[in-house]
Amino acid sequence: MRMPFQPASLRQFILLSFFLALIPLAVLLWQSNSALSDVSRYAVAEAETSVGSVKVTENMQNVVIDIERAVRQFSILRTDALSRLAKTHIENYQQMLDTLCQSLNAKSLCEQQQRHVAVLLQIYLQSSIEDLSPLLLQIRQQQGQLTEQTWNLLEERLQAQQSYVVAAQNQLAWQSVALVILTLLLVLWASARIASPIKQLDTMIRSIGQASHHFPNEQVEGPRELTELGEQLRWLASRLQQLEALRLILLRHASHELKTPLSSIKEGCALLSEQVVGMLNPQQKEVVTLLSGSADRLSQLTEQLLDYNRLLQQAKPEFAWHDSQQLLQSCFNDHALSLQQRQQYIELDCQLPRLYTDAMLFRRILDNLINNAQAYGGQSSPVWVVLRPHDKFMLLDVANNGTPIPAEMRAKLFEPFQRGTAPRFDAIQGSGLGLSIVADCARLLGGLAEIVDVNYADVCIRIRLPMVEDSI
């Protein structure tokens, strides 16, 4: 079932994610432009108001001087022209005073100045200059106070403007942080929506490569391409499980079915070799010897197939404490005859008194490695077996002299049915399952198998297994 609001394709989902991530950035740009425009308008308005107030104040200062000059001249000359000039200056001053007082927060001072100017307008025609001088001085002083009040108001407006700019900056900064966080959350959400189906696909791919084949039942939920890929992986897993089941059935039945006729062939070859059923001529004895060798080789191949089949079916190791010397020596005793035939011998270096492992899996590893060293090792040469601790691991090295293994071939030899180019010195041709069984057993024990270089042997196969501290 498709998730709600789920885009149909991966391309649509990516484009939608980019669009959603760009929305907060676009909002941030719009808010920044809006805040800058508000600050600009506010600054322009304050500048115009300040310039207007300064102009009015300076004009009023000049008009006060003009009023005093005109009144003094009129008091001396008493002409109509000077009378009209003085009246004009006084009326102009009254208008500018009214305009200025609307913006100033000095009501009492403005009322006093307006009252003094009105008195001057009424008495300057009849009064002498001596009577008008105190009034003119008071008007001039109060005009100075008005000028000072105007400059104080301009300073307050400048501080208010600075506070407004700082507040706008802080608001824009917080909005930027919030929108950036929102953008990050949208990006994380989009990446999670893409990463989630990819993680499901990764889990499917890993489950296909595991021996247990526990394939997840959850359906991949995401864009169409990833959903289709999940269904293809599901089909592939089902197909691989069918093929694996067929392979196991084939191995099981073929191996068991081969054992019965092989036993009959070996018994018949033994009877012929012992001449129980009659005397054989030299040519017949040679044929019986070849048949007996082929039967032994086929029997060993069958046993390896059965061993490989049992290993694939083993789900979980059974760990327990074991005596190292006893476990190793029991394996050496089983291989004593084959080693003696080629005059080979074991050189053991055991530095761990106890092992915490699965005895059956560990024995399979050691059996195959000793068999490999016996088959490919040189005549009358030692087989080195070293068991020692290293960091948090225990290392099992089985080494022999012989043909060195090229570096490019080392990894392939641990794959099923892969054989090296070095010749075997026994009468049996290898099946290519020995080192594969070793690698699978090491994997089940939580370790790995590798081919390493050592200074005392030509070939060394090392098994690296996790170690419990009590083993030392």
From TrEMBL:
It catalyses: ATP + protein L-histidine = ADP + protein N-phospho-L-histidine. The lineage of its organism: Bacteria, Pseudomonadati, Pseudomonadota, Gammaproteobacteria, Chromatiales. The keyword Flavoprotein does not apply. It is an enzyme of class 2 (transferase). The keyword Secreted does not apply. InterPro entries: HATPase_C_sf, HATPase_dom, His_kinase_dom, HisK_dim/P_dom, HisK_dim/P_sf, Sensor_HK_Regulatory, Sig_transdc_His_kin-like_C. Residues 253-469 form the Histidine kinase domain. This is histidine kinase. It comes from the Bacteria.
